[in-house]
Amino acid sequence: MKALHIAATGMKAQELNVEVISNNVANMRTTGFKRQRADFQDLLYQNLRRMGTDTSAAGTIVPTGVQIGSGVKTAATARIMSQGNLQQTDKELDVAIRGEGFFQIQLPDGTTAYTRDGSFERDATGTLVTVDGYSVLPGIVIPQDARDVTISTEGAVQAIVGGAAQQLGQIQIARFVNKSGLEAIGDNLFLETEASGAAQVGNPDQDGYGNLQQGFLEMANVEAVSEIADLIAAQRAYEMNSRVIKAADDMYSTTTNIR
Fold first, then answer.
1. What pTM did the predictor assign?
2. Could you list the residue ranges that cross the membrane (predicted)?
3. What are phi and psi of 115, to 5 degrees?
């Protein structure tokens, strides 16, 4: 009886589904987090009677046939890259992207990573860095005596230095043909992959790139009500598959008890 194995694949699939949902819920307050969704596909089929085969010399054919499925498998955990809500922080180095694009971050090994988390700080040299100390590309240095730092919607960084306004640099952002193809590595960072395509770098608020909002942070795009509804649906699907296993076991028991 294949029902045991088929239902087992269903339970494993829903177990993974719950894990994806739990990660979404856990990151509800994570800056720039993008929720994931588990996608499933059916497994191979066994053809007991193939549709379209001849049933007589007169040319009649089987209209539907008999196929028995093998269960379900996880096809992907797609990342939903929709815009999260912007939350005002009034911190001058907090920056949110409204629209398309990612901040470029240089990792210690020289690799360029990408993030939607714009909670930036200054290190000991005045360089604009992430909360983990990674440099924001292209490198921008804010002098120690700088005050009233402003970041325009186009990414221009200015400050009052020595009593005069001074241009300190230009923040550029990157976008991708397939944002969902980026590889998440934790710490709110993504890496470019062959699936995402090469990064296209440009200035904010130009040529389809999003604009920057100083004093704001983009929150996670997780909706609590939707996640709870998905969790309940996953739980019910898991329960139904467990009942199939119980029913198959009862049928096995009935068969073995026949005298």
1. 0.85
2. none
3. -150, 155
Please name the residues in contact with 66: beta carbons below 8 A apart, sequence gap of 6 or more: 47, 48, 49
| 1-23 confidence digits (pLDDT tens) | 688 889 999 999 999 999 999 99
Q: Tell me which residue of 179, 180, 176 sits closest to 198, measured CA to CA.
A: 176
pLDDT tens digits, one per residue of 133-154: 999 999 899 988 888 899 999 9
User: Before 63, cis peptide (omega within 30)?
Assistant: no
